[in-house]
Specification:
By secondary structure, the chain is of the alpha+beta class. The chain contains five helices and six strands. Helix 1 runs parallel beside helix 3. The chain is globular and about 40 Å long.
């Protein structure tokens, strides 16, 4: 099982509630929109947008992660990147940090229902 270190505490990289909590905290701190697109396997699938993205100015940057739950590092790496960037508010930014939360929780490539999101996209 993979682990991450946040705030001096080691946690499982598959701790989806903590991941969601961290993304919501970042969105609030940055004054970004945090929308629940859908509930999947008991977890919210979040869309994080900056003001430029919400205004639909076009173009910009879209990044998604967490498709393969057995690869738990990408949602956390995306979070670290989003925390570190000096975002100017001009470039539209849309982040979908964990598209398969049940798979991340269960450490499996597929959803809990057995769907491989990469193959079924």
């Amino acid at each position: 099982m993979s682990s991450i270190l946040r705030g001096g505490t080691a946690r499982s990289g598959h701790d989806v509630p903590f991941l969601v909590e961290q993304w919501r905290a970042l969105a609030e701190a940055r004054d970004w929109s945090c929308t629940v697109l859908i509930e999947a396997d008991g977890f919210p699938v979040l869309a994080i947008e900056n003001e430029a993205s919400q205004a639909r100015k076009g173009g910009g940057l879209y990044v998604s992660a967490g498709v393969h739950g057995d690869e738990c590092a990408p949602p956390w790496a995306l979070l670290e990147w989003a925390e570190a960037i000096e975002e100017n508010g001009e470039t539209p930014l849309l982040l979908l940090p964990c598209l398969n939360p049940g798979g991340v929780r269960d450490n499996t490539r597929t959803t809990p229902g057995g769907v491989d999101l990469n193959r079924g996209f």
